[in-house]
Design goal:
- The protein is mainly alpha-helical.
- The chain has four domains: 218 residues, no CATH class; 250 residues, no CATH class; 216 residues, no CATH class; 78 residues, Herpes Virus-1, CATH 3.30.40.10.
- 59% of the residues lie in helices and 2% in strands.
- It has a three-stranded mixed beta sheet with strand order 2-3-5. A three-stranded antiparallel beta sheet has the order 7-6-8.
- β6 and β7 form a beta hairpin.
- α10 packs parallel to α14.
- The longest helix has 44 residues.
- The chain is elongated and about 155 Å long.
- It starts with 17 loop residues before the first strand and ends with a helix.
- It comes from Glossina morsitans morsitans (Savannah tsetse fly).
- It holds the Pfam family U-box.
- It catalyses: S-ubiquitinyl-[E2 ubiquitin-conjugating enzyme]-L-cysteine + [acceptor protein]-L-lysine = [E2 ubiquitin-conjugating enzyme]-L-cysteine + N(6)-ubiquitinyl-[acceptor protein]-L-lysine.
Length: 956
Amino acid sequence: MGNADNPFAALLADSKASINKELIEDIFLFTLRPQTRERSKERALLCLADVIVNDSSPETGMGEELLSHAVFERIMLGNTREYLIPGSNEEDAVQMDTIVYLHRAYIACEEFKQQRSNLAAECDAIRTLIITNVSTCMRQPDLFPGRTVCEQWRDIINTSEDYCTRETMDFLVECIAKIYIDEEPLEALGALKANFYPLLGKVQTEISQANLVTLKKKVFWLLNFFVKEKRTPQMGEILIDFTTPNPNANGAAYMDTLIGQLFSISILPKNQNGPYEFFGDFTLDSRHTDPALWECMANHQNSLFMLIKQLLMQDANNKQKMLGWLAKCLHANVLLVDPTYCGVIEEERQKKSVSMLKAYEETCLLPVEENEKRLTADKFNFVTELFFLTHKAYELSYKASIERFIHMTRELHNMQSAYQDVINTDPNNDFAKNLLRMLKEQMQPYLCLCNCLMEPENDTAILKFFEASAIWLTEISLISAEDYAGCANRSDFAPHTRNNIELPEEIEFTPRTLCSVPESIIDNIVTYLNFSRDFPSGQYIQMYPSSHEAFFRMIILFMGSSKLVKNPHLRAKLAEALEFFLPKRATGAPFQTHIFDSHPERLKVVPSLLNVFVSIEMTGQSVQFEQKFKYRRPMYAIMEFLWTKEEYVQCFRNLAVEAESNMEAIEPPIFLRFINLLINDAIFLLDESLENLQQIRQLQEAQANGEWDNLPESERQQHHSNLHQLGNYARFDNILGRDTINLLKLLTTEIKSIFCHNSMVDRITSMLNYFLLNLVGPQKEKFKVKDKKEFEFDPANTVLEICHIYINLSSSDSFCLAVSQDGRSYSSQLFSYTENILIRIGGGQLIGEMAELAEKVQKMENQYKQEQECLAEAPEEYLDPIMSTVMTDPVILPSSKVTVDRSTIARHLLSDQTDPFNRAPLTMDKVIPNETLKNEIQIWLAEKRAACSNENLIKS
């Protein structure tokens, strides 16, 4: 072939410099010397003497022009074996894949340069020639024989030691640089994509067909070839562009990309429809966790992490493209969940370097006023981007998986219970066999999800991230007004230092930056803590006590303040997360934390806890009625635990004293509102429980009497369903009712006078009398059901708890009087019934104290009757319109103008801050004392008592 036909002609050097022929033979494995010539080496060569005319002396050097021509002819050979001079390394000599051949030549050239410094200049010239030919081959691959370029590069990567040697990376760098010299940037990138997209396509296919165990390490070796070298950001760009679907792609499209496929590999199936590939041979005796799978998962995640990290570090363009990919992937998978990110409106997203889409639509800790614009920094840094993207990824993946896992756990528990019930009666029953089959089918996805969520290394990484998040949340919320104002001079609001400020008693300054902090950040932490408490992954968090400090401090701060978190649901969830730090009573397993004993701000937990307890029901922050009891369940457990420690008991005492000093404050004291709601809860829960138990008893009797036998199948199933549903309701009410009564018992052991205050005493005594009568009186049989334990019904324990409360408050005359004046449930026989039951249930030690109480109540009742006889026929205007008793301190309600007794309206406003007669807003500071009426009543009372006293003297 002449130069006219040679596409390399323009590249041929004009230099007449001579290059050592032995060096050329050792590097390119061809010779222009005749085959018959005696050779001192046994390396295989191709003899091109008949192909290329060599005018130079066979023993001297070769000019660069001739060498260029010879190399070109060599890589264009269609059948190299025809020219082979046998020897070692024949496969290298006859190699027909152009880039593989030139890559080997490049490596050999570099080795000679290192070994023989006197040949450095000649080696550099040869290397330039090699790179020129590679560039041409990659830009015009159809001109050359051998396999496709992508197959050749794959071989180069896979056969290199350590998958990407320095020489191989240098080879790639120089090849890409040459392509960009020879072509315009867009054409050059297009040429590279034409070469490497097919390679990435094959890698993607390989990933799609692999699972966590079968995925080969060489997949990551090959992908690292694209991201390892900062000198070739074009390779990283190729990888990102290849794995990016069209702009309008849905979530499934991202999963089907190369990186999406890597993210999809875990113990779980790659999609919701399966198939599940692990735990297929599960038996009921099998282990629930598999450390070998955990190790595979940890290795895979570490490899994926390093791949993404290197891509982000390659250059600014690739970093933004990768962040954009993650942001769009998350957004495409949001479904009905709003995307998150601080407060940047869409129009400013690009300008402020915010990758997350629709950030402004996220629900944040605090609302903004109408037409108020959220505060945002001038620009957001890389760490900020990663922080919010990570939280969104957790929300969409881990949090959703945890919710699914909890649901599956409940279903499996119910299925296992049903299976045990059946096999205990008839092990060979077909229904039992079907249940076992269903149980095994459900266990495989359950165990896969379980092992995926509880992998230790990933759990530790999540823990550390959430610990940092908790510290960050606390720091940005406790910023002073002065420091907050100074942020404007920095053009950002990030906490540049950790101040570790002491938690305040009251929040004085609320930074408006909280209007841009998504609720999901706290919700993610809460979800993690609750999951870690209830499931085995909690064992790992114990190894990092510093996280306990951070989480505890964050919970106390946000749980008790509506100035920092508006949403009462979220604050209630924080109280639930606080339960994480309690000892696990169910398992008896020790939990190695001393946070309640050692944290310097631990005593703030009591007012914070009471605050959230009240806030989930008070006007303006109410939650659904059933939901509030779910939220309060962990609060009861926490308070019961705190009551075992004297310093916390003293906190309750202090709050009670403060409440008694401010009983008629504009805003009722927190402790007063707390015990008022506690009594409300007890009344509702125990009343509901008794009603449900009565219905359960009726259904059980009907079933036992055979009344269901002749009913149609649909009606029998309906009765079974009703019985099951009532049982669930009763169980829920009994558990919470028991906790409520227990907490009242604990409180009244140390705090008494506030329960006996005139605004509270009638309510607690009527509650105690009502439930005691139902549990010990003539009607107690109405609540006697089969399998009381199944419904968590323990009437004996409830009677004992109620008796303790009576005894705790028995020293108060106002309490004893109020007991006697309860016309609904009290009678002189009430405590006689109680004594009989106490003997039967092992409460004999209480009988003496209850007898003393009964005697005192009877005495107070007699005295009261005498006084009421004297006060009979009181003028109607002297009577409280709600309680129908003589008022002692009448007040006028400002909007309805109705006069009521001060104690009556004070009690009403604890639960409902409105006028009971017209629902207008009302607080105690607005009521108007009716001094004229009060004086009239006092004069009338004095006259009536004097008259009664004279009558008694005459009678005696």
